[in-house]
Here is the input.
Amino acid sequence: MRRVALLGCGAIGGQIARAMDSGAVGGRLTHVYDADPAASARLAASLSAPPAIAENAHMLSSNPVDIVVEAASQDAVRDCALSVIQNRRDLVIMSAGALADGAVLEVLSDACAEFGRSIHLPSGAIAGLDALRATRGELESVELTTTKHPGSLRGAPGAKSLPASGAAEIFSGTALDAVAMFPQNANVAATLSLATLGPRRTRVRVVADWGARSNSHRIEARGAFGSMKISVSNVPDPSNPKTSRLAALSAIELLSRLCSGGGAVRPGA
Ligand SMILES: NC(=O)c1ccc[n+]([C@@H]2O[C@H](COP(=O)([O-])OP(=O)(O)OC[C@H]3O[C@@H](n4cnc5c(N)ncnc54)[C@H](O)[C@@H]3O)[C@@H](O)[C@H]2O)c1
Here is the structure.
């Protein structure tokens, strides 16, 4: 049975931990860590098979685990991802925005090659990455429009001038800039750009809409293959409205694939 360590015990980490605890994922959650000690203690105590709480983020991958799942923040990826790979563990990254920085991506890609490990990015809060990857060589343009309630955007550097009412576009630019302006909201932009034209050529618009009841993402892609429109309307996570429920579900699905002993038929994997 594959042993899993969890970095980040918030909305996504909590759902992953509960899915593992219920047996829905075929691995075992053995260690957790959160910068907020109360968050890791609360989560561990709520599980029927409580994992050990690591002393710090780096200790997490010193333990005999097979996979580390990051569900914390872009800073956590910048601080810990390299040591996870150097400790010869596979890594699942939720805070994909950190990889929009070409220097970070290069260091981690080189380390994966050197240490024979893999970094996995769940599709997160969007759909259709398989088809977009298939057309990658023929893509001419990719644009993401993300629409969220202002309450889900508040606090981001890019959300300084939110509309007083109605809906307004508050950002238009590259995926690279979107990640800097909306660090907790632009993981979708980063994941999309890494699968398609890269962070400098993938376009992003962010709309703040007081009427929005869901976090919605619309992708429009064009190229020699034809065109694609992908639209996703996500329920926000009750404990973190910046995060969509689909993001945690995609991580759980990826993890159950990584933890499965094989032998199953898995469409679209
Ligand atoms: N890939 C996607 O599509 C996608 C979608 C939604 C969220 N995310 C990202 O996934 C991450 C987790 O999201 P969430 O909704 O669970 O967030 P959350 O705020 O609910 O939980 C994050 C937890 O991580 C902890 N944390 C933050 N930085 C840390 C660090 N450096 N070391 C240790 N612990 C740290 C926090 O204390 C918190 O308990 C965020 O970075 C978020 O932006 C990605």
